[in-house]
Amino acid sequence: MTRVLDGLRVVELAGIGPSPHAAMLLADLGADVIRIERPGGVNQLVPVEQDAGLRNRRSVHADLKNPDDLQRVLRLVDNADVLIEGYRPGAAERLGIGPEVCRARNPRLVYARITGWGQDGPLASYAGHDINYLALTGALNAIGREGERPLAPLNLVADLGGGSMLAITGILGALYARERSGQGDVVDVAMVDGVSTLMTMYWTLTENGLWSADRGTNIVDSGAPFYDTYECADGRYIAIGAVEPAFYAQLLTGLGLDPSDLPDQYDRSAWPMMRTRFAEIFRTHDRDRWVDHFAPLDACLTPVLTLEEVATHPHIAARGTVVESFGQRQPAASPRFANAASATYSAPRAPGADTAAVLRDWGVVESAH
């Protein structure tokens, strides 16, 4: 069996954040991804060889400011289906590897550009990080406790949700369109646009008067006592998401509460009192005892796990959601396909370790001097 993207050739211009994550997702599905490493590399939190996010691709060293190296990379582009870059707008053009140059050589190329603000607009050249893109889209204002400052939700939402995931959508969409037109495309992936897309539900609720701009007062932003986390006797936490009445009834059963003695689930005036009541009860037992107690009930209750605990959870273990390869635990490839071969996990390669092999495999003939 083959994997779904076997045969797809991708050039990744080394960067940080969403671009290597997008390249990893394609590589996990079978694409032949070549990472072009610049002299000195990019700012890595850990050495390249220990970065699971750089798995499943080969590495070519190239200084794009060197004319010979640039021509070598452009010859790789000639044979590629996709190019991914995460530079600031205009940087690739200044290096001589922008979309006009690349697509003039290879009209079938899908050229994906991932930036925070997009390729145009007043902020296009302005520096930023995940938290900034969240701030400008209204997402950051919506996250946090009532009466407290907005809370940054790691860099999952903009860099990865609005960045790499939307890049994959754009790349696959452009590849599908290429099957009909024979032409590639330039995909402008702006994290600010991607986060706005993720906020569709909250725009809809706002436009229909069903969402308050006061954070921490709505149902799914910790405003409701039945959609929140609670501390247990051992200092660990459980999460509950009993939004629907049927699940809420199961929650009350598990907590030993009689619904006839309580206000309606959606009586907002009673939410502070119910939160206090829930908190008092959950503090009477350890987290895992609560998990065992609620196991027979459909109350949308789960333990809040640390990364150290995740891999051994029965459900995660049964699905193989975390794998161990090249000496590291890491997320398994996702999604899964019924009619494709399972993913494999090759260790990240040292910068430039595969230069000669890649040039050979991709049919790049070095110019004679």
UniProtKB/TrEMBL annotation:
<dbReference type="InterPro" id="IPR003673">
    <property type="entry name" value="CoA-Trfase_fam_III"/>
</dbReference>
<protein>
    <submittedName>
        <fullName>Alpha-methylacyl-CoA racemase</fullName>
    </submittedName>
</protein>
<dbReference type="InterPro" id="IPR023606">
    <property type="entry name" value="CoA-Trfase_III_dom_1_sf"/>
</dbReference>
<dbReference type="InterPro" id="IPR050509">
    <property type="entry name" value="CoA-transferase_III"/>
</dbReference>
<dbReference type="InterPro" id="IPR044855">
    <property type="entry name" value="CoA-Trfase_III_dom3_sf"/>
</dbReference>
<dbReference type="Pfam" id="PF02515">
    <property type="entry name" value="CoA_transf_3"/>
</dbReference>
<dbReference type="GO" id="GO:0003824">
    <property type="term" value="F:catalytic activity"/>
</dbReference>
